[in-house]
Automatic annotation (TrEMBL), chain A:
PROSITE patterns the record matches: ABC_TM1
Protein name: Carbohydrate ABC transporter membrane protein 2 (CUT1 family)
Biological process per Gene Ontology, one example term: transmembrane transport
InterPro entries noted in UniProt: MetI-like, MetI-like_sf
Native source organism of the sequence: Paenibacillus prosopidis
Homology family: Belongs to the binding-protein-dependent transport system permease family.
Keyword list, A-Z: Cell membrane, Membrane, Transmembrane, Transmembrane helix, Transport
Positions of the ABC transmembrane type-1 domain: 73-264
UniProtKB/TrEMBL annotation, chain B:
Annotated keywords: Cell membrane, Membrane, Transmembrane, Transmembrane helix, Transport
Topology class, membrane: Multi-pass membrane protein
Organism of origin: Paenibacillus prosopidis
Domain ABC transmembrane type-1: 69-281
GO CC, any one term: plasma membrane
Listed name of the protein: Carbohydrate ABC transporter membrane protein 1 (CUT1 family)
Length: 279, 292
Protein backbone atom coordinates (compact mmCIF):
# COMPACT_ATOMS: atom_id res chain seq x y z
CA UNK A 1 0.00 0.00 0.00
CA UNK A 2 2.64 2.46 1.10
CA UNK A 3 4.63 1.83 -2.07
CA UNK A 4 1.82 2.88 -4.39
CA UNK A 5 0.85 6.02 -2.48
CA UNK A 6 4.25 7.72 -2.48
CA UNK A 7 4.74 7.85 -6.28
CA UNK A 8 1.19 9.14 -6.62
CA UNK A 9 1.84 12.00 -4.24
CA UNK A 10 5.12 12.80 -5.95
CA UNK A 11 3.34 12.70 -9.32
CA UNK A 12 0.68 15.14 -8.12
CA UNK A 13 3.37 17.36 -6.62
CA UNK A 14 5.29 17.42 -9.89
CA UNK A 15 2.13 18.23 -11.85
CA UNK A 16 1.33 21.19 -9.61
CA UNK A 17 4.91 22.47 -9.63
CA UNK A 18 4.84 22.55 -13.44
CA UNK A 19 1.42 24.21 -13.45
CA UNK A 20 2.41 26.90 -10.95
CA UNK A 21 5.65 27.50 -12.81
CA UNK A 22 3.72 27.91 -16.08
CA UNK A 23 1.39 30.48 -14.55
CA UNK A 24 4.32 32.30 -12.91
CA UNK A 25 6.46 32.67 -16.06
CA UNK A 26 3.39 33.74 -18.06
CA UNK A 27 2.14 36.41 -15.71
CA UNK A 28 5.02 37.56 -13.53
CA UNK A 29 6.80 39.75 -16.14
CA UNK A 30 3.60 41.64 -16.94
CA UNK A 31 2.43 41.92 -13.33
CA UNK A 32 5.84 43.21 -12.30
CA UNK A 33 5.77 45.88 -15.01
CA UNK A 34 2.22 46.92 -14.11
CA UNK A 35 2.97 47.06 -10.40
CA UNK A 36 6.16 49.06 -10.99
CA UNK A 37 4.29 51.60 -13.12
CA UNK A 38 2.66 52.79 -9.89
CA UNK A 39 5.98 53.21 -8.08
CA UNK A 40 8.19 56.28 -8.17
CA UNK A 41 11.61 56.06 -9.79
CA UNK A 42 13.13 56.15 -6.33
CA UNK A 43 11.00 53.25 -5.12
CA UNK A 44 11.88 51.23 -8.24
CA UNK A 45 15.60 51.85 -7.75
CA UNK A 46 15.32 51.15 -4.03
CA UNK A 47 13.73 47.73 -4.27
CA UNK A 48 12.32 46.18 -7.45
CA UNK A 49 10.13 43.79 -5.44
CA UNK A 50 8.44 46.27 -3.10
CA UNK A 51 4.80 47.22 -3.52
CA UNK A 52 3.91 50.80 -4.52
CA UNK A 53 3.44 53.22 -1.61
CA UNK A 54 0.55 55.02 -3.26
CA UNK A 55 -1.55 54.29 -6.32
CA UNK A 56 -1.58 57.19 -8.74
CA UNK A 57 -2.53 57.39 -12.37
CA UNK A 58 -0.15 60.32 -12.87
CA UNK A 59 2.41 58.30 -14.88
CA UNK A 60 -0.32 57.31 -17.34
CA UNK A 61 -1.49 60.90 -17.68
CA UNK A 62 2.14 61.97 -18.23
CA UNK A 63 2.69 59.39 -20.93
CA UNK A 64 -0.48 60.44 -22.72
CA UNK A 65 0.07 64.19 -22.39
CA UNK A 66 3.81 64.74 -22.51
CA UNK A 67 4.98 61.96 -24.78
CA UNK A 68 2.31 61.90 -27.52
CA UNK A 69 1.10 58.45 -26.60
CA UNK A 70 -2.45 59.55 -27.29
CA UNK A 71 -1.48 59.96 -30.96
CA UNK A 72 0.26 56.58 -31.07
CA UNK A 73 -2.65 54.96 -29.33
CA UNK A 74 -5.09 56.41 -31.85
CA UNK A 75 -2.80 55.37 -34.71
CA UNK A 76 -2.62 51.81 -33.44
CA UNK A 77 -6.39 51.54 -33.04
CA UNK A 78 -7.04 53.13 -36.43
CA UNK A 79 -4.47 51.04 -38.31
CA UNK A 80 -5.22 47.69 -36.64
CA UNK A 81 -8.98 48.32 -36.74
CA UNK A 82 -9.13 49.33 -40.38
CA UNK A 83 -6.70 46.62 -41.51
CA UNK A 84 -8.94 44.08 -39.77
CA UNK A 85 -12.14 45.43 -41.34
CA UNK A 86 -10.66 45.64 -44.84
CA UNK A 87 -9.17 42.16 -44.51
CA UNK A 88 -12.36 40.65 -43.12
CA UNK A 89 -14.41 42.10 -45.93
CA UNK A 90 -12.29 40.89 -48.80
CA UNK A 91 -11.47 37.49 -47.27
CA UNK A 92 -15.14 36.90 -46.45
CA UNK A 93 -15.90 37.35 -50.13
CA UNK A 94 -13.21 34.85 -51.10
CA UNK A 95 -13.96 32.49 -48.21
CA UNK A 96 -17.59 32.36 -49.33
CA UNK A 97 -16.54 31.34 -52.83
CA UNK A 98 -13.95 28.79 -51.66
CA UNK A 99 -16.42 27.33 -49.16
CA UNK A 100 -19.52 27.06 -51.35
CA UNK A 101 -18.73 27.09 -55.07
CA UNK A 102 -16.87 24.88 -57.47
CA UNK A 103 -14.85 26.07 -60.42
CA UNK A 104 -11.77 25.02 -62.29
CA UNK A 105 -8.49 25.73 -60.50
CA UNK A 106 -10.22 26.35 -57.16
CA UNK A 107 -8.08 23.98 -55.11
CA UNK A 108 -4.91 25.21 -56.76
CA UNK A 109 -5.65 28.86 -56.00
CA UNK A 110 -6.65 28.04 -52.44
CA UNK A 111 -3.53 25.96 -51.82
CA UNK A 112 -1.33 28.69 -53.29
CA UNK A 113 -2.92 31.34 -51.06
CA UNK A 114 -2.55 29.36 -47.85
CA UNK A 115 0.92 27.96 -48.51
CA UNK A 116 2.33 31.49 -48.22
CA UNK A 117 1.74 31.11 -44.50
CA UNK A 118 4.94 29.07 -44.52
CA UNK A 119 7.15 31.91 -45.76
CA UNK A 120 8.56 33.89 -42.84
CA UNK A 121 6.87 37.30 -43.01
CA UNK A 122 10.13 39.20 -42.53
CA UNK A 123 11.66 37.63 -45.65
CA UNK A 124 9.38 39.70 -47.88
CA UNK A 125 10.47 42.96 -46.26
CA UNK A 126 12.46 44.58 -49.08
CA UNK A 127 9.95 43.95 -51.92
CA UNK A 128 7.05 45.09 -49.73
CA UNK A 129 9.03 48.18 -48.77
CA UNK A 130 9.61 48.94 -52.48
CA UNK A 131 5.97 48.33 -53.43
CA UNK A 132 4.78 50.69 -50.70
CA UNK A 133 7.34 53.28 -51.87
CA UNK A 134 6.14 52.99 -55.48
CA UNK A 135 2.52 53.40 -54.43
CA UNK A 136 3.54 56.61 -52.66
CA UNK A 137 2.37 55.15 -49.36
CA UNK A 138 5.67 55.22 -47.47
CA UNK A 139 5.20 56.73 -44.02
CA UNK A 140 1.39 56.72 -44.27
CA UNK A 141 -1.20 54.92 -42.20
CA UNK A 142 -2.80 53.70 -45.42
CA UNK A 143 0.36 51.84 -46.36
CA UNK A 144 0.45 49.98 -43.05
CA UNK A 145 -3.28 49.24 -43.25
CA UNK A 146 -2.80 47.72 -46.70
CA UNK A 147 0.18 45.60 -45.64
CA UNK A 148 -1.44 44.43 -42.41
CA UNK A 149 -4.66 43.45 -44.14
CA UNK A 150 -2.59 41.40 -46.60
CA UNK A 151 -0.94 39.54 -43.70
CA UNK A 152 -4.27 38.08 -42.61
CA UNK A 153 -4.84 36.44 -46.00
CA UNK A 154 -3.90 32.82 -45.40
CA UNK A 155 -5.21 32.58 -41.85
CA UNK A 156 -8.52 34.39 -42.49
CA UNK A 157 -9.14 32.40 -45.66
CA UNK A 158 -8.51 29.17 -43.77
CA UNK A 159 -10.98 30.06 -41.01
CA UNK A 160 -13.63 31.67 -43.21
CA UNK A 161 -13.68 28.93 -45.85
CA UNK A 162 -14.32 26.37 -43.11
CA UNK A 163 -17.08 28.56 -41.66
CA UNK A 164 -18.92 29.06 -44.94
CA UNK A 165 -18.65 25.33 -45.69
CA UNK A 166 -20.78 24.59 -42.65
CA UNK A 167 -23.64 26.83 -43.81
CA UNK A 168 -26.20 24.62 -45.65
CA UNK A 169 -26.48 25.21 -49.40
CA UNK A 170 -30.27 24.74 -49.24
CA UNK A 171 -30.48 28.24 -47.83
CA UNK A 172 -28.84 29.70 -50.93
CA UNK A 173 -31.10 27.76 -53.25
CA UNK A 174 -34.21 28.87 -51.37
CA UNK A 175 -33.00 32.47 -51.54
CA UNK A 176 -32.32 32.21 -55.27
CA UNK A 177 -35.81 30.84 -55.87
CA UNK A 178 -37.19 33.80 -53.96
CA UNK A 179 -35.34 35.99 -56.43
CA UNK A 180 -32.48 37.15 -54.21
CA UNK A 181 -29.40 38.26 -56.12
CA UNK A 182 -25.95 36.67 -55.69
CA UNK A 183 -24.89 39.59 -53.55
CA UNK A 184 -27.96 39.52 -51.32
CA UNK A 185 -27.62 35.77 -50.81
CA UNK A 186 -24.09 36.42 -49.58
CA UNK A 187 -24.67 39.56 -47.55
CA UNK A 188 -28.11 38.96 -46.00
CA UNK A 189 -28.13 35.19 -45.60
CA UNK A 190 -24.61 33.77 -45.40
CA UNK A 191 -22.68 36.54 -43.71
CA UNK A 192 -24.88 36.72 -40.59
CA UNK A 193 -24.54 32.95 -40.17
CA UNK A 194 -20.74 33.15 -40.44
CA UNK A 195 -20.49 35.50 -37.45
CA UNK A 196 -18.42 33.22 -35.22
CA UNK A 197 -15.80 32.52 -37.88
CA UNK A 198 -15.63 36.19 -38.79
CA UNK A 199 -15.19 37.09 -35.14
CA UNK A 200 -12.36 34.60 -34.68
CA UNK A 201 -10.53 35.73 -37.83
CA UNK A 202 -11.12 39.35 -36.84
CA UNK A 203 -9.70 38.92 -33.35
CA UNK A 204 -6.58 37.19 -34.64
CA UNK A 205 -6.06 39.80 -37.35
CA UNK A 206 -6.56 42.65 -34.91
CA UNK A 207 -4.12 41.22 -32.37
CA UNK A 208 -1.57 40.54 -35.11
CA UNK A 209 -1.77 44.10 -36.43
CA UNK A 210 -1.91 45.72 -33.00
CA UNK A 211 1.28 43.91 -31.97
CA UNK A 212 3.21 44.17 -35.25
CA UNK A 213 6.59 45.88 -34.99
CA UNK A 214 8.93 45.00 -37.86
CA UNK A 215 6.90 46.43 -40.76
CA UNK A 216 5.76 49.44 -38.74
CA UNK A 217 9.45 50.15 -38.19
CA UNK A 218 10.49 49.96 -41.85
CA UNK A 219 7.36 51.48 -43.45
CA UNK A 220 6.92 54.59 -41.30
CA UNK A 221 9.28 57.24 -40.07
CA UNK A 222 7.40 60.27 -38.71
CA UNK A 223 5.94 60.31 -35.23
CA UNK A 224 2.58 61.24 -36.76
CA UNK A 225 2.23 57.73 -38.18
CA UNK A 226 3.94 55.82 -35.40
CA UNK A 227 2.22 52.83 -33.80
CA UNK A 228 2.53 51.83 -30.14
CA UNK A 229 5.16 49.06 -30.44
CA UNK A 230 7.50 51.36 -32.38
CA UNK A 231 6.75 54.25 -30.01
CA UNK A 232 7.78 51.99 -27.16
CA UNK A 233 11.19 51.47 -28.71
CA UNK A 234 11.72 55.23 -29.23
CA UNK A 235 10.57 55.87 -25.68
CA UNK A 236 12.98 53.23 -24.41
CA UNK A 237 15.87 54.85 -26.26
CA UNK A 238 15.08 58.41 -25.18
CA UNK A 239 13.71 58.05 -21.64
CA UNK A 240 14.90 54.68 -20.41
CA UNK A 241 15.95 56.28 -17.10
CA UNK A 242 12.34 57.30 -16.44
CA UNK A 243 11.25 53.87 -15.30
CA UNK A 244 7.82 54.84 -13.99
CA UNK A 245 6.69 56.34 -17.27
CA UNK A 246 8.38 53.61 -19.29
CA UNK A 247 6.46 50.95 -17.37
CA UNK A 248 3.21 52.88 -17.74
CA UNK A 249 3.82 53.04 -21.50
CA UNK A 250 4.51 49.30 -21.70
CA UNK A 251 1.36 48.57 -19.71
CA UNK A 252 -0.68 50.62 -22.15
CA UNK A 253 0.69 48.69 -25.09
CA UNK A 254 0.11 45.22 -23.65
CA UNK A 255 -3.14 45.72 -21.74
CA UNK A 256 -5.60 46.09 -24.66
CA UNK A 257 -4.42 42.84 -26.22
CA UNK A 258 -4.70 40.99 -22.91
CA UNK A 259 -8.20 42.36 -22.28
CA UNK A 260 -9.41 41.39 -25.76
CA UNK A 261 -7.90 37.96 -25.29
CA UNK A 262 -9.47 37.41 -21.86
CA UNK A 263 -12.91 38.26 -23.26
CA UNK A 264 -12.65 35.80 -26.15
CA UNK A 265 -10.10 33.26 -24.95
CA UNK A 266 -12.04 30.21 -26.07
CA UNK A 267 -12.07 31.31 -29.72
CA UNK A 268 -8.42 32.31 -29.70
CA UNK A 269 -7.32 29.01 -28.14
CA UNK A 270 -9.47 26.94 -30.47
CA UNK A 271 -8.13 28.62 -33.59
CA UNK A 272 -4.52 28.43 -32.41
CA UNK A 273 -5.02 24.73 -31.69
CA UNK A 274 -6.26 24.08 -35.22
CA UNK A 275 -4.04 26.44 -37.22
CA UNK A 276 -0.93 26.91 -35.09
CA UNK A 277 -0.96 30.61 -35.85
CA UNK A 278 -1.59 33.47 -33.49
CA UNK A 279 -2.44 36.16 -36.01
CA UNK B 1 -26.86 37.22 -69.71
CA UNK B 2 -27.75 33.73 -68.56
CA UNK B 3 -27.60 32.52 -64.97
CA UNK B 4 -24.45 30.43 -65.31
CA UNK B 5 -22.39 33.27 -66.69
CA UNK B 6 -23.64 35.69 -64.14
CA UNK B 7 -22.58 33.29 -61.35
CA UNK B 8 -19.14 32.96 -62.91
CA UNK B 9 -18.84 36.73 -63.07
CA UNK B 10 -19.79 37.04 -59.40
CA UNK B 11 -17.22 34.40 -58.46
CA UNK B 12 -14.56 36.39 -60.29
CA UNK B 13 -15.62 39.63 -58.60
CA UNK B 14 -15.61 38.02 -55.15
CA UNK B 15 -12.15 36.53 -55.65
CA UNK B 16 -10.53 39.53 -57.32
CA UNK B 17 -9.53 41.55 -54.21
CA UNK B 18 -8.03 38.52 -52.49
CA UNK B 19 -6.09 37.52 -55.59
CA UNK B 20 -4.85 41.09 -55.95
CA UNK B 21 -3.65 41.03 -52.32
CA UNK B 22 -2.01 37.68 -52.94
CA UNK B 23 -0.18 38.86 -56.05
CA UNK B 24 0.89 42.20 -54.58
CA UNK B 25 2.04 41.20 -51.12
CA UNK B 26 2.84 37.51 -51.43
CA UNK B 27 3.73 36.16 -54.85
CA UNK B 28 5.49 39.24 -56.25
CA UNK B 29 7.60 39.78 -53.12
CA UNK B 30 8.62 36.13 -52.94
CA UNK B 31 9.62 36.02 -56.62
CA UNK B 32 11.42 39.35 -56.24
CA UNK B 33 13.38 38.05 -53.27
CA UNK B 34 14.56 35.00 -55.18
CA UNK B 35 15.46 36.87 -58.36
CA UNK B 36 17.11 39.98 -56.94
CA UNK B 37 19.16 37.88 -54.52
CA UNK B 38 21.34 37.36 -57.59
CA UNK B 39 21.70 41.06 -58.38
CA UNK B 40 23.41 44.19 -57.18
CA UNK B 41 20.64 46.61 -56.39
CA UNK B 42 20.38 49.75 -54.31
CA UNK B 43 16.75 50.58 -55.09
CA UNK B 44 17.54 53.64 -57.26
CA UNK B 45 19.18 52.16 -60.35
CA UNK B 46 17.80 48.96 -61.80
CA UNK B 47 19.09 45.63 -60.49
CA UNK B 48 22.35 44.35 -62.08
CA UNK B 49 22.82 40.61 -62.31
CA UNK B 50 25.92 39.56 -60.37
CA UNK B 51 25.52 35.82 -60.07
CA UNK B 52 26.42 34.37 -56.72
CA UNK B 53 28.30 37.47 -55.51
CA UNK B 54 25.78 38.25 -52.74
CA UNK B 55 25.92 34.70 -51.46
CA UNK B 56 29.72 34.70 -51.58
CA UNK B 57 29.69 38.02 -49.74
CA UNK B 58 27.36 36.59 -47.12
CA UNK B 59 29.88 33.95 -46.14
CA UNK B 60 33.15 35.73 -46.87
CA UNK B 61 32.75 39.47 -46.13
CA UNK B 62 32.91 38.89 -42.39
CA UNK B 63 31.78 36.24 -39.97
CA UNK B 64 28.37 37.83 -39.23
CA UNK B 65 26.44 35.47 -41.48
CA UNK B 66 28.23 32.38 -40.20
CA UNK B 67 27.61 33.46 -36.62
CA UNK B 68 23.96 34.08 -37.54
CA UNK B 69 23.77 30.53 -38.91
CA UNK B 70 25.44 29.17 -35.78
CA UNK B 71 22.94 31.04 -33.58
CA UNK B 72 20.03 29.86 -35.69
CA UNK B 73 21.26 26.29 -35.36
CA UNK B 74 21.66 26.55 -31.58
CA UNK B 75 18.35 28.35 -31.07
CA UNK B 76 16.56 25.85 -33.30
CA UNK B 77 18.07 22.94 -31.38
CA UNK B 78 16.94 24.49 -28.07
CA UNK B 79 13.50 25.22 -29.53
CA UNK B 80 13.04 21.68 -30.86
CA UNK B 81 14.08 20.05 -27.58
CA UNK B 82 13.61 22.12 -24.41
CA UNK B 83 10.98 24.54 -25.72
CA UNK B 84 8.82 21.94 -27.47
CA UNK B 85 9.48 19.48 -24.64
CA UNK B 86 8.11 21.92 -22.10
CA UNK B 87 5.05 22.60 -24.25
CA UNK B 88 4.39 18.87 -24.63
CA UNK B 89 4.85 18.30 -20.89
CA UNK B 90 2.27 20.97 -20.09
CA UNK B 91 -0.11 19.50 -22.69
CA UNK B 92 0.12 16.02 -21.15
CA UNK B 93 -0.44 17.45 -17.68
CA UNK B 94 -3.47 19.50 -18.77
CA UNK B 95 -4.89 16.46 -20.59
CA UNK B 96 -5.34 14.80 -17.18
CA UNK B 97 -7.52 17.81 -16.26
CA UNK B 98 -6.03 18.48 -12.83
CA UNK B 99 -7.67 21.15 -10.68
CA UNK B 100 -7.07 24.54 -12.32
CA UNK B 101 -6.08 23.23 -15.74
CA UNK B 102 -8.23 25.79 -17.57
CA UNK B 103 -6.54 28.63 -15.68
CA UNK B 104 -3.13 27.33 -16.73
CA UNK B 105 -4.23 26.98 -20.34
CA UNK B 106 -5.71 30.49 -20.28
CA UNK B 107 -2.78 32.31 -18.67
CA UNK B 108 -0.13 30.41 -20.65
CA UNK B 109 -1.51 32.13 -23.77
CA UNK B 110 -1.12 35.68 -22.42
CA UNK B 111 2.55 36.20 -23.40
CA UNK B 112 1.56 35.19 -26.92
CA UNK B 113 -1.18 37.77 -27.38
CA UNK B 114 0.95 40.77 -26.48
CA UNK B 115 3.41 42.58 -28.70
CA UNK B 116 6.75 40.79 -29.05
CA UNK B 117 8.39 44.23 -29.06
CA UNK B 118 6.86 45.03 -25.68
CA UNK B 119 7.82 41.57 -24.43
CA UNK B 120 11.44 42.07 -25.48
CA UNK B 121 11.57 45.45 -23.72
CA UNK B 122 9.98 43.93 -20.59
CA UNK B 123 12.73 41.32 -20.54
CA UNK B 124 15.36 43.99 -20.98
CA UNK B 125 14.17 45.43 -17.67
CA UNK B 126 13.90 42.03 -16.02
CA UNK B 127 17.60 41.50 -16.78
CA UNK B 128 18.55 45.11 -15.97
CA UNK B 129 21.40 45.32 -13.48
CA UNK B 130 20.02 48.21 -11.38
CA UNK B 131 16.31 47.51 -11.22
CA UNK B 132 15.96 44.06 -12.77
CA UNK B 133 14.48 41.21 -10.78
CA UNK B 134 17.11 38.61 -11.70
CA UNK B 135 20.21 40.44 -10.53
CA UNK B 136 18.51 41.94 -7.48
CA UNK B 137 17.21 38.53 -6.50
CA UNK B 138 20.68 37.02 -6.81
CA UNK B 139 22.15 39.84 -4.70
CA UNK B 140 19.35 39.47 -2.13
CA UNK B 141 20.04 35.78 -1.61
CA UNK B 142 23.68 36.40 -0.87
CA UNK B 143 25.63 36.77 -4.14
CA UNK B 144 26.33 40.40 -3.34
CA UNK B 145 28.66 40.84 -6.33
CA UNK B 146 26.18 39.57 -8.88
CA UNK B 147 26.32 42.16 -11.67
CA UNK B 148 25.95 40.21 -14.91
CA UNK B 149 25.28 42.66 -17.76
CA UNK B 150 22.88 40.23 -19.37
CA UNK B 151 22.37 41.57 -22.87
CA UNK B 152 25.85 43.08 -23.11
CA UNK B 153 28.31 40.29 -22.40
CA UNK B 154 29.03 36.89 -23.87
CA UNK B 155 27.64 34.27 -23.40
CA UNK B 156 25.06 35.92 -21.08
CA UNK B 157 23.43 37.74 -24.02
CA UNK B 158 22.72 34.50 -25.86
CA UNK B 159 21.27 32.94 -22.70
CA UNK B 160 19.14 36.01 -21.90
CA UNK B 161 17.68 36.12 -25.43
CA UNK B 162 16.93 32.41 -25.20
CA UNK B 163 15.10 32.96 -21.90
CA UNK B 164 12.79 35.56 -23.49
CA UNK B 165 11.05 32.73 -25.41
CA UNK B 166 12.19 29.42 -23.93
CA UNK B 167 9.17 28.66 -21.74
CA UNK B 168 6.50 30.31 -23.88
CA UNK B 169 5.45 27.18 -25.73
CA UNK B 170 1.69 27.63 -25.51
CA UNK B 171 1.17 27.04 -29.22
CA UNK B 172 2.82 23.61 -28.92
CA UNK B 173 0.70 22.90 -25.85
CA UNK B 174 -2.57 23.83 -27.56
CA UNK B 175 -1.85 21.83 -30.71
CA UNK B 176 -0.79 18.72 -28.78
CA UNK B 177 -3.67 19.05 -26.29
CA UNK B 178 -6.12 19.33 -29.18
CA UNK B 179 -4.73 16.13 -30.69
CA UNK B 180 -4.77 14.31 -27.32
CA UNK B 181 -8.41 15.19 -26.81
CA UNK B 182 -9.21 13.77 -30.24
CA UNK B 183 -7.97 10.27 -29.32
CA UNK B 184 -11.02 7.97 -29.27
CA UNK B 185 -11.96 6.71 -25.80
CA UNK B 186 -12.03 3.09 -27.04
CA UNK B 187 -8.27 3.16 -27.54
CA UNK B 188 -7.68 3.85 -23.85
CA UNK B 189 -10.36 1.43 -22.69
CA UNK B 190 -8.82 -1.37 -24.74
CA UNK B 191 -5.36 -0.64 -23.33
CA UNK B 192 -6.62 -0.54 -19.74
CA UNK B 193 -8.46 -3.83 -20.26
CA UNK B 194 -5.19 -5.34 -21.44
CA UNK B 195 -3.69 -4.30 -18.11
CA UNK B 196 -1.71 -1.20 -19.10
CA UNK B 197 -1.08 1.32 -16.32
CA UNK B 198 -1.38 5.09 -16.60
CA UNK B 199 2.25 5.64 -17.47
CA UNK B 200 2.20 2.94 -20.13
CA UNK B 201 -0.89 4.49 -21.72
CA UNK B 202 0.89 7.85 -21.83
CA UNK B 203 4.18 6.47 -23.12
CA UNK B 204 3.07 3.77 -25.58
CA UNK B 205 -0.32 5.05 -26.75
CA UNK B 206 -0.76 8.80 -26.31
CA UNK B 207 2.77 9.89 -27.16
CA UNK B 208 2.93 8.00 -30.50
CA UNK B 209 -0.58 9.17 -31.38
CA UNK B 210 0.32 12.85 -31.04
CA UNK B 211 3.65 12.54 -32.85
CA UNK B 212 2.29 14.53 -35.79
CA UNK B 213 1.15 17.37 -33.53
CA UNK B 214 4.57 17.45 -31.87
CA UNK B 215 6.15 17.59 -35.33
CA UNK B 216 3.96 20.58 -36.19
CA UNK B 217 5.07 22.17 -32.92
CA UNK B 218 8.73 21.63 -33.83
CA UNK B 219 8.22 23.20 -37.27
CA UNK B 220 6.39 26.23 -35.85
CA UNK B 221 8.95 26.72 -33.08
CA UNK B 222 11.93 26.59 -35.45
CA UNK B 223 10.13 28.85 -37.94
CA UNK B 224 9.67 31.37 -35.13
CA UNK B 225 13.43 31.25 -34.47
CA UNK B 226 14.19 31.81 -38.16
CA UNK B 227 12.07 34.99 -38.10
CA UNK B 228 13.08 36.16 -34.60
CA UNK B 229 13.69 39.92 -34.80
CA UNK B 230 12.36 41.91 -31.84
CA UNK B 231 13.91 39.62 -29.22
CA UNK B 232 17.35 40.48 -30.63
CA UNK B 233 16.93 43.95 -32.15
CA UNK B 234 15.40 45.45 -29.02
CA UNK B 235 17.75 43.84 -26.52
CA UNK B 236 21.34 43.00 -27.49
CA UNK B 237 21.12 44.34 -31.08
CA UNK B 238 23.20 41.35 -32.10
CA UNK B 239 25.96 42.14 -29.63
CA UNK B 240 28.28 42.01 -27.88
CA UNK B 241 30.23 42.27 -31.15
CA UNK B 242 28.11 40.09 -33.40
CA UNK B 243 27.71 37.33 -30.87
CA UNK B 244 23.89 37.19 -30.98
CA UNK B 245 23.42 38.27 -34.61
CA UNK B 246 20.81 36.59 -36.74
CA UNK B 247 19.51 36.63 -40.32
CA UNK B 248 16.48 38.93 -39.76
CA UNK B 249 18.87 41.52 -38.29
CA UNK B 250 21.11 41.26 -41.39
CA UNK B 251 18.03 41.61 -43.58
CA UNK B 252 16.94 44.71 -41.70
CA UNK B 253 20.38 46.29 -42.00
CA UNK B 254 20.45 45.46 -45.71
CA UNK B 255 17.21 47.38 -46.22
CA UNK B 256 18.27 50.33 -44.06
CA UNK B 257 21.59 50.55 -45.98
CA UNK B 258 19.86 50.20 -49.38
CA UNK B 259 21.74 46.98 -50.16
CA UNK B 260 18.63 45.36 -51.54
CA UNK B 261 20.23 42.54 -53.50
CA UNK B 262 22.30 41.59 -50.48
CA UNK B 263 19.26 41.80 -48.19
CA UNK B 264 17.27 39.55 -50.48
CA UNK B 265 20.01 36.94 -50.65
CA UNK B 266 19.74 36.76 -46.85
CA UNK B 267 15.94 36.56 -47.18
CA UNK B 268 16.29 33.72 -49.69
CA UNK B 269 18.42 31.80 -47.22
CA UNK B 270 15.70 32.35 -44.62
CA UNK B 271 12.97 30.99 -46.87
CA UNK B 272 15.02 27.98 -47.98
CA UNK B 273 15.99 27.04 -44.43
CA UNK B 274 12.31 27.28 -43.48
CA UNK B 275 11.23 24.95 -46.29
CA UNK B 276 14.05 22.50 -45.54
CA UNK B 277 13.12 22.39 -41.86
CA UNK B 278 9.54 21.66 -42.81
CA UNK B 279 10.46 18.81 -45.16
CA UNK B 280 12.99 17.22 -42.80
CA UNK B 281 10.79 17.48 -39.70
CA UNK B 282 7.70 16.09 -41.49
CA UNK B 283 9.82 13.13 -42.64
CA UNK B 284 11.28 12.56 -39.18
CA UNK B 285 7.87 12.61 -37.52
CA UNK B 286 6.20 10.73 -40.42
CA UNK B 287 3.56 13.41 -40.32
CA UNK B 288 1.51 12.38 -43.32
CA UNK B 289 0.57 8.99 -41.97
CA UNK B 290 -2.77 8.78 -40.26
CA UNK B 291 -2.45 6.36 -37.37
CA UNK B 292 -6.02 5.59 -36.39
Amino acid sequence: MKNSVMPQILGKLFIYIVMIFTIAVSTFPILWIMMSSFKTNKEILGNPFSLPQTISLQPYIDVFQNYNFLIYFKNSIWIAGLATLVGLFIYSLAGYIFGKFDFRGKNFIYALCTITLLVPGHAKAQPIFSIIMKLGLYDTKTGLILVYSSFGLALALFILRATFMTIPKDLDEAALIDGASFWRTFWNINLPLAKSGIATAGILMFLGSWNEYFYALILTTSSMNRTLPVALQFFDEAFSYNYTNMFAAITMVVLPGIIIYLIVQEQVQASVASTGVKG
Amino acid sequence: MNKKWSTKLWIAIFLAPTILMFLMFNLTPIVTVFVTGFTEWNGFSSPKFNGLDNYINLVSYDDTFLISLRNLFLWSAIAATLHVGFGVLVAFILYKRPFGWRVVRGTFMIPNVISVAAWAIIYKFIFNDDIGVINNFMRDIGFSDFHVKWFYESPAAFIAITLTWLFYAVIVTLIVLNELMAIPKEVHEAALLDGANGWQVTRYINLPLVKGAIGTGVILSITARIAMFEEVALTSRGGPGNDTYNIPLMLYNGIVNSEYGYANSAATVMIIIGVLVMIVVSRLFKMNEKIY
